């Protein structure tokens, strides 16, 4: 092979300079939009975030964490807020910039996940990251609201990325960090349960989840905080709000009961949600095992990357949709994962993020734009989210029914035959009669590189023939 041929760039790879300019332009545009919102002060900042900051500033910054009773958040987020008290930045801007920086990290993990699906099409991954960065709910959540949803979602999406890269310990650690920041991280725990039951994630790696959670509490322990208070902070949160829904586009937009009966309905709703989610988990595990044996390597092979992302998205929509007392922001994880799975299956689910975003953003507007509230129909937004849930469950069911196989579906998606990477150049043996040649080694797909290779047993399938 000539030096010229060897030095040729990978097919489909963009010019590094062009890509760098595109990234800088995207980041500049995303930050510019958010900077326009920095001076806006939400009621959450007025009643919660601002007073927390002032308390810490008045009590010595990190020293204030020796008694965290002043906040109903776990201490990892309070660490970041305490650090702001030492910087020459206003409380409002500093709190928002923390979330904005995690917006960029979230876009980075989006890029990495989509790159696994399209290793030869960097612009696909770039476009996915750009869409996430400019989603109206993502921009509003950090730039206007100053909320921390980007933080825990970054670690959840990072955990999914490590699952796809076969790094179970890192994945569970990221899930633990996400839980340490926000209780809403449990929205993806049904996915984690499926991963463990089909043995794509070893049960031992689950130890990393509580280890990461507790490790983040250690600095507060050392400052004198009550360990029991820190470890039970989330047990005090569910009783904060009594309403069946707080502008969330959930099933409770279709439920109307007397206020005196809401507590009973809330309790029943939690039970029903748990039963339904466990039933969906059981069906997913049964479908995976039915397709490829009873677990072990066979189970890991059947739970392809596409199936992992579909299950993650279904979990992120189903759990907050079914649970009572959800806020409008609690579909933030679904906002992001719907974009990722749409780039994973563009022909099937291109419309999914549209449904999720219309529903989620409409719920945001109910809170942040009171003048528009009379013109917004919350049942309509709930119906949009229900349609999104049906769409992703339907796609997941179809994917689980399909048999995992070689990634010929990607070749069909691209409209060309798969390229045999690392194949040797033709030799004189190719001129021999067919009977005299040795049998050709089987063609399999290198899952970690997203392209075909020659020889060796097939790795666990990352895609299925149903993905086109």
Question: What can you tell me about this protein's structure?
Answer:
This protein has 468 residues and is mainly alpha-helical. Helices cover 59% and strands 3% of the residues. The protein has helices at 3-6, 16-35, 43-58, 75-84, 91-117, 122-134, 136-144, 149-164, 168-181, 189-197, 208-222, 227-231, 262-291, 296-302, 305-322, 332-344, 346-349, 352-368, 378-401, 408-414; strands at residues 245-246, 326-327, 443-446, 451-454. It has a two-stranded parallel sheet. It has a two-stranded antiparallel sheet with strand order 3-4.
Task: Give me some keywords for this one.
468 residues, mainly alpha, two-stranded parallel sheet, two-stranded antiparallel ribbon, disordered N terminus
Classify the helix fraction into a percent range. Answer: 55-70%
Number of helices: 20
Computed over alpha carbons, the radius of gyration is 24 Å
Distance between the termini: 34 Å
Largest sheet data: 2 strands, parallel
SSE class: mainly alpha
The percent range for strand residues is: under 5%
Task: State the low-pLDDT regions, or none.
Answer: 1-9, 406-468
The total of beta strands comes to: 4
From N to C, what is the helix and strand string?
Answer: HHHHHHHHHHHHEHHHEHHHHHEE
State the shape. Answer: globular
| Lateral strand order in the biggest sheet | 1-2
Mean pLDDT, to the nearest integer, reads 85
Write a brief caption for the model.
By secondary structure, this protein is mostly helical. It has helices at 3-6, 16-35, 43-58, 75-84, 91-117, 122-134, 136-144, 149-164, 168-181, 189-197, 208-222, 227-231, 262-291, 296-302, 305-322, 332-344, 346-349, 352-368, 378-401, 408-414, and strands spanning 245-246, 326-327, 443-446, 451-454. The radius of gyration is 24 Å and the shape is globular.
